[in-house]
Amino acid sequence: METIDQIPVQTGLKPKEAAKDGGVPAIAVEDLHKSFGSQKVLNGISLTVNRGETLAVLGRSGTGKSVLLRLIIGLEKPDSGSVLIHAQDIAGLGLDQLGAIRMKMGFLFQHAALYDSLTVEQNVAFPLVHHKKEMSKSERGDRVKQLLAEVGMEGHLEKMPSDISGGMQKRVGLARALALAPDILLLDEPTAGLDPISSGEIDDLVLKLQAEHHMASIVVTHDLHSAKTIADRLALLDGGNVVIEGSFEELQRSDIKFVQEFLGHS
Amino acid sequence: MIDRNFTAVAGTESPLSETRRSLISPNPFSAPINKFLEWFGDLGIFFWRVAHAAVTPPFEFRELFRQLDEIGSMSLPLVALAGAATGVVLSMEARYSLTRFGAKSLLPAAIVFSVIHETGPIITGLVVSGRVGAGIGAELASMKVTEQIDAVEASAVSPYRLLAAPRILACILVLPLLTLAGDACGVLMGWVAQALVEPLSLHQFINAGFNGADFNDFLPPTFKTAVFGLIIGLIACFQGMRTQGGAAGVGRAATSSVVLSSLFVILADVVLVKLILIFFP
Known about the structure:
The complex is a heterodimer of chains A (266) and B (281).
Chain A: E1 2-3, E2 10-11, E3 27-36, E4 39-49, E5 54-59, H1 65-72, E6 80-85, E7 88-89, H2 95-102, E8 105-108, H3 120-131, H4 137-150, H5 166-177, E9 184-188, H6 196-213, E10 216-220, H7 224-230, E11 233-238, E12 241-246, H8 248-253, H9 257-265
Helix pairs in contact in A: 3-4, 3-5, 4-5
Chain B: E1 2-3, H1 15-23, H2 30-55, H3 61-100, H4 107-145, H5 148-154, H6 159-197, H7 202-210, H8 215-241, H9 246-279
């Protein structure tokens, strides 16, 4: 019987853009393990993402894709293994040091996680209010308007999150994630629950932002079409580990049964 | 065929997890005790993080003032009403009892001392634990289950500093002030209830009621409610921020915030009354 550990991991990595930080990847995940009680979620996963590169993480529900993102930004602690952000291991960092690293990262939550007591404008201004105290009120206002214009939400400043649609909430969440001009962007199911047109708009938006800001991005998604559109590389997870990693064409050429099943059903 | 029956990889289990597993034995008596001790340990860690966040810059003054208004001003009518009702009940009950024992002249003192020593502080503590405990618990739990607290953390802002510390500090600062208001309403309505039965001026009532009272009768019982504020704020924030499980989790957090904070307010009152009697005889 073939176990998951015996499945060969195919890595045909040809990043679109070489690492610009002296060859150091922006994100490096090494042999990461994570369990919740008796349930093993991640089982020794390793990945790297360079600056200017987008990696899409695919897989069935419950395979630890969102947990991987939460580990990378330090919202969860790994059982073992390491997460390196610009070669700095985030394990064991104090809250202040971790905060300094998080300021270089933008995170779009699956359901946007906008602060429901704040307006759209206040949501986007939130990171600026707390970390750019040198900014005047008018400078901050201008920056918020610029960010909302980037995501096509400039006309909705005074609205509450409950007054806008799911797709619009994701756009606002994206604007908030970009507020501190991060080097790294983590997107958790950016198109989940959206109609095909809204999904396409979010994909176009991510591509546009990627072209303008050259961030290292990880996109967790179930949506193979979206992954194909916005990612340079795809990593398919199963059983808490990477079954295959490479371009969409490399995945298509794979003879691993699970990969074929996944592509066939997507 | 791919075997998906994954087992733990040798060497990945820490010795700590072995120890924990042996501590959480199947013994039906040890499980609740372990759970209780674990809850207390987590509460201690939470308190330490909030205390650290509260005394180190940057300080969230704006949020503190917002919470002072939310917890203080909004609780005032309820505390005043509860204090007034207590004053009326005390007046009626004490009048009946003291008349039976021929000590009716002590009625103003009995009302005033009962209100400022015990009923005012404890009623204020319980009313605030009900209103504020449920409010904070439900608000933070709702933020937790909708990932808003994670979003705060992901934005490199400490949720202990932004969310917990201002709420707990506001509870600590506001409880003694609310107690003063509750005491005043209790004494005033005690006089009204007394005056309706037997004409007595407010001046005479206050003179008789506070005759022989000093600051030791007044300040320690009032300021002990700052401890009640700490308990209410701490437990409500803790229960809210550790919530799991959607709408049901929010309901559980609100309920447990009220139940636990009321319980610990009553227990703390027993200890604090004893300490006050020792240090302020």
